[in-house]
Amino acid sequence: MIAPTARTLALIVFAAPAALVVAAFAPAAWPLVPIAGLALLALVTLDGWFAGPLRDVRLIVPRDAEIGHRTEVPLLAEIDPRAGAAAPRAALGFDYRLGAEAAAECRLEPDEARGVWRGSFALTPKRRGTGTIDTLWVAWRGPLGLARRQERREIGEELRVWPDLSPVRSPVLQHYLRDAQFGTVARRIRGEGTQFEALSEFQRGMDRRQIDWKASARHTGLLARENEAERNNQIVFALDCGAAMSEPIDGLPRLDRAVSAALTAAFVALHGGDRVALFGFAERPGRLSPFAQGTRAFPQLQQAAAGFDYSAREPNFTLALTTLATALKRRSLVVIVSDFTDPTSAELMIESVERLVRRHLVLFVTMEDAELAALAAAAPSSVGDIAAAVAADALARQRALVLERLRHLGVDVIEAPWEALTYQLIDRYLATKRAEAIG
């Protein structure tokens, strides 16, 4: 398609008053006006022809991307250089999962070595799932800048958006794995753990409770039991996918912040020899993923987490946690990552957690509401600000009361900003594992 550029439209706008002046003061010269218009039309057509056709275009769409991380989509365009096309531009239309604007633009630069124009679109996915890149537009001008050629291509390529795994690759996590006592190689820790490892001669300074009196009687000497840290525990991350967790926090949904923290902690647990599963729920409970064991099984958890979809409805804690309790055949550490917005849903959640904690060890994880705290602490400048501060303070008090009731049930609670959530969760998991409280 050939279309006039902004330069051509500007010439037409300026030529209109000139045509009126000619018609008013030199009527005999008026036929020159349409001739000039036809000449301009001819120049536009000729300029569009010299711009050259688009011979080929190739959009290199990656198969995978991580939510919240910049992903480059390269573009190669081959334009017939009749007189040298000027500064081609391209635009891309895609699914809302791949960017908040659902569109991106880029300017193409010449690649003289390959004889093509090269550019790249920068996409930053905002939602997990499979996004579609729909349409590509390429536009370029002729040498005079009077005409613009444009072509549209239907792409239809899919890009899978995975959870953010940058914490798994971070040096901080490698420090956790290096310094943790519970690695892939079993550490024999004298006086700790419940798994019997060996008998050794009792030495001064050992805990007397470690003496095995029966074995000592048989060998006529004091022998102590050496235990090793308990392994093969079951860890279940139960992720709330309801309306509150679908709300954004610093540009990404709370659910995706929770998924990233859960996967990072799961990686540490797999590295320590424990078995990990994921469970998502909203108005209906999802499927409990198979228990993964060993770091080689981590992609299974990543794929299961990628399937947790967003929901605009409130979660059904009663049905979800009852379903989870039925599926678990042995005592497990259940990490519930959730949020609550009203006292009614919080009351139902507490009742469901109370039944779950009778058999399992429960850790409740929630993100601090920075916006709520800011509203409550802000200096008011109007009556509306006072009302907002009072309402925010009431909600904060209700939230604190719910968390305190959970603690009274024996539930361990983590409330932290999303930036600190991952490593607080890992710290709490390692502390629980050292205390041998899971098995």
Characterization of this structure:
The chain is an alpha/beta fold and 439 residues long. The chain has three domains: 54-162, Sandwich (Immunoglobulin-like), CATH 2.60.40.10; 166-184 and 231-434, 3-Layer(aba) Sandwich (Rossmann fold); 196-228, no CATH class. It is 38% helix and 28% strand. It contains 13 helices and 20 strands. Strands 1, 3, 5, 6, 9 and 10 form a six-stranded mixed sheet that branches. A six-stranded mixed sheet has the order 17-16-13-18-19-20, with helices on both faces. The chain has a four-stranded antiparallel sheet with strand order 2-4-8-7, with no helix packed on it. Residues 181-194 have low confidence and may be disordered.
What is the terminal separation in angstroms?
70 Å
Q: How many discrete domains?
A: 3
- The SS-based structural class is alpha/beta
Overall number of strands: 20
- Rounded radius of gyration (Å): 33 Å
Runs in which pLDDT lies below 50 for 5 or more consecutive residues are 181-194
Counting copies of identical and different chains, the oligomeric state is single chain
**CATH level-1 class of the largest domain:** Alpha Beta
Task: Write the CATH homologous superfamily of the largest domain.
Answer: von Willebrand factor, type A domain
Shape assignment = elongated
What is the helix content? 25-40%
Mean pLDDT, all residues: 83
CATH topology of the largest domain: Rossmann fold
Beta content comes to 25-35%
